[in-house]
């Protein structure tokens, strides 16, 4: 028994055009061994390509997530410094929680109302360092910032340490939770 050929026709899922395939079988001796080796090589190559391709896609996706969360962090700092409560309203998730430096817990409306009242006004935020931990649909950021603010009209400078939990929603990244600790700097 020598070589045989088999022909088949199929349609690609997104095409109306038929495709034609021809496969040759050699079931004898060296041709069969070459065919098996070639098939094994193709399977290994496809497996490696899929593995490396998936890793590359995951790395690109992680980089894209990091960039968008960094952008959201920058918008959060800018909105605080500008007193832009509407921008903060869009950045905070509906179930947002904030554990303040004095141990008070505020929800989204509590924080926005506090900022609207003018009791606290942020003049400037300078990020000193930043770190991210990423999981699917969730990013935790930590960092230190130097903050110039006014509390009840009194100017202060603080070094702030924060932990933010960002969640990915259909409209983009939103801040789900924030914890902050602040050290008032004397003589700066």
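Sequence proposed for the structure above (188 residues):
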């Amino acid at each position: 028994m020598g070589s045989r050929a088999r022909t088949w026709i199929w349609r690609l899922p997104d095409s109306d055009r038929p495709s034609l395939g021809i496969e040759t079988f050699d079931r004898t001796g060296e041709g069969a061994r070459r065919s098996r080796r070639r098939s094994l090589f193709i399977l290994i190559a496809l497996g490696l390509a899929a593995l490396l391709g998936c890793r590359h896609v995951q790395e690109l996706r992680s980089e894209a997530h990091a960039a968008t969360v960094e952008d959201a962090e920058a918008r959060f700092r800018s909105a605080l410094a500008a007193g832009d409560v509407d921008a903060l309203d869009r950045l905070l998730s509906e179930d947002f929680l904030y554990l303040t430096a004095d141990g008070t817990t505020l929800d989204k409306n509590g924080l926005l109302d506090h900022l609207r009242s003018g009791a606290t006004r942020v003049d400037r935020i300078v990020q000193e360092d930043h770190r991210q931990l990423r999981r699917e649909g969730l990013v935790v950021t930590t960092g230190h910032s130097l903050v110039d603010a006014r509390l009840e009209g009194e100017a202060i400078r603080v070094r702030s340490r924060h932990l933010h939990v960002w969640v990915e929603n259909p409209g983009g990244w939103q801040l789900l939770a924030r914890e902050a600790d602040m050290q008032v700097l004397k003589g700066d």
